[in-house]
Amino acid sequence: MFPVGGNAARLAWERLRKRAEVQGLRFHDLRHEAVSRLFEMGLSVPEVAMLSGHRDTRRLMRYTHLRPEALAEKLAAARR
């Protein structure tokens, strides 16, 4: 995905995290966030799986943490 080595990416992430003064955020946490927001945007399971690289739907669902507000908005829109 990135044209840099793993160690260079890790060091860059650590520098960015320190600069942003964010403790405990892992690069991997961004994948959870991205998967959840892609579902909230209305993408289908196959579409999100293709973008995230998940081959197993069960593992993909473990990454999904939808915001209750987004679900409520969707339900309200469907009711209209």
Protein model, in words:
It is built from 5 helices and no strands. The protein has a domain at 27-79. It has helices spanning 6-19, 29-40, 45-52, 57-62, 68-79. With 80 residues, the protein is mainly alpha-helical.
Describe, in short, the structure shown.
The protein is an all-alpha fold. The chain is built from five helices and no strands.
Present the secondary structure layout.
Blueprint: H1 6-19, H2 29-40, H3 45-52, H4 57-62, H5 68-79
Share of β-strand residues: under 5%
**Helix-strand sequence:** HHHHH
The percent range for helix content is: 55-70%
Number of helices: 5
User: Largest beta sheet, briefly?
Assistant: none
Return Rg in Å: 16 Å
User: N-to-C terminal Cα separation, in Å?
Assistant: 42 Å
Which regions contain 5 or more consecutive residues with pLDDT less than 50? Answer: none
The best one-word shape is extended
Q: What labels would you give this structure?
A:
single chain; 80 residues; mainly alpha; extended
